[in-house]
Amino acid sequence: MTYFDNFDGGLYSEALKQCDSVIRAAPTAIAFSNRALVHLHLELFRKTVKDCDEAIRLDPYCLRAYVTKGHALAAIGKKDDAVKCWTAGFGQGSLAVIDIELHSELRRCLTGAGVAPVSSPPAPATPTPPNVSAPAPAPTPIPTPMPRAPQATVTLAPKPSPHFAPTKRDADLAMGETIGPEEALAAAQHLASAGKVQLGSNSVHIDRDIALGYLKVNTGHYEDGIAHFGQLLSKDPKLLAALLGRGTAYALIGELDKAIQDFSAAIDANPTVADAWKRRGQSRSARGLEKDAIADLTQGIALDPADGDMYQQRGLIHYKQRNYRRAIPDFKKATDLERGNKAAWNHLGLCLNAIGSSLEAVEAHSRAIKYDSNFK
């Protein structure tokens, strides 16, 4: 039986032995986080905390470790420390933008403890365009990817804007206290003038407004980003970049139905945009609509077969369903397209181990460590 079978069957001692074996072969943050979860069910709370600390040391974005550690601390009467732990994890989740289910679970933990969750990620030191990077490794046993704010390139020419002009308050919210409003507006103007706004509108001024909205979302000001994009959409309900931006912000605060609605509107406006299918697939996955999510990601892959992220995300859904043999080709394709994708290598290893291919699993975990020596 696999670790997952033993864990779900309540055979925690057997699951613990398997976790020990995995850690000896590949001591990753996910492996320590999984063992911590077993220790928690065995009510070995101090061992739980120790394993969670190691997982967080190896990967500060391992949200499952924050959740589990908080429960262990609460169980031994250290409720203040539990709240601090969940708060730290909630902040990391806001920065990493990785796992919407776990981020929501941290929110529920804090709310249950009578604490209002607050996301206050630091603003960048200089005006830079919104960045899209591969997701950090999602914790197991149930990883779900989270949508991220977009970026691409379009060449534009300056035209007068029929839309609202960003205010000083907009700029403050977009960039935080370390950068003034003038620099924020300058950053948005630079993005638009340089043609670095995804699915632009043929107007530098409108694209500046879009870029400012992206900056709001990327710096954690989700509600303000939603309002900002809402004003743009009141002028043009089919403005694709604004639909994607607002949908992403909705997803990041857990308003998944509203996110799906915006991404669906984007698909209706232009069904050839792979990113819209991907984002709706991510949100549907987090909503538990796994069959629909797989269909969306499959369509996105058909439109953009070079996007390794979509293979990885479809693989994560198969992994969540324990359909390891379907997940393996997706993770392999993700690693083919991005050899340094440590998260995909790691999940490939987990799937291979689950079907009994232990040597191949160790090789895959070793690849993850090879590409990032801190990923252990």
Low-confidence stretches: 120-179
Overall morphology = globular
- Which structural class matches the secondary elements? mainly alpha
How many H/I helical runs? 19
Can you characterise this structure?
With 376 residues, the chain is mostly helical. The protein contains 19 helices and no strands. Helix 13 (256-269) packs antiparallel against helix 14 (274-286). 52% of the residues are buried. Residues 120-179 have low confidence and may be disordered.
List keywords for this structure.
globular; mainly alpha; 376 residues
Any chance you could write out the topology, listing elements then pairs?
Blueprint: H1 3-8, H2 12-25, H3 29-41, H4 45-58, H5 63-75, H6 79-96, H7 100-112, H8 168-175, H9 181-193, H10 204-218, H11 222-235, H12 240-252, H13 256-269, H14 274-286, H15 290-303, H16 308-320, H17 324-337, H18 342-354, H19 358-371
Helix pairs in contact: 2-3, 3-4, 3-5, 4-5, 5-6, 5-7, 6-7, 8-9, 8-10, 9-10, 10-11, 10-12, 11-12, 12-13, 12-14, 13-14, 14-15, 15-16, 16-17, 17-18, 18-19
What can be said about this structure in brief?
It is built from 19 helices and no strands.
